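Before a colleague's protein record goes any further, I have to sign it off. Thanks in advance; the entry in question is below:
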Amino acid sequence: MGEPNLHLTLRFLGRLQGHQIDRLGRNLGSLRHEPFELGWGRLGWFGERSAVASIHLGLGSGKDDLTLLQDEVQRACLEAGLGLAEEHFRPHVTLARAPGRSRPALPRLPRPPDLGAWPVTDFGLFESRLEPSGAAYVRLAEFGLRSAD
């Protein structure tokens, strides 16, 4: 995955109509959540060792704060009429994805560098567009984190 496509998904939305995006944007804009720090965790993968779909980097410190933010995003989605998320929240950043329908065996992975924690001060609403080179992500809106005070 190229650097511009690195992201952490809080909620997959599927196809939405314009009015749903507007309503969700208003709900997300009204969220109150303190900024926090998030640290990297361990390398992982989805699929079996013999048939890997993707390789990702999990999250470490700050994961509880991230889960609380994800819960608030989930409530905003429900209030916008979008229903429950179809998958359990497993926070990660995808680093590589198997091309097409291929599922190669898990390669030997290097230990990730210690990058420390970074501040989480905002989140965005993105549209995913499938292109011949893979998915491209377009930011539709950005929401700053701020306290409830």
Remarks:
- The chain has a mean pLDDT of 86.
- The CA atoms of residues 88 and 147 lie 26 Å apart.
- The chain is about 20% helix and 35% strand.
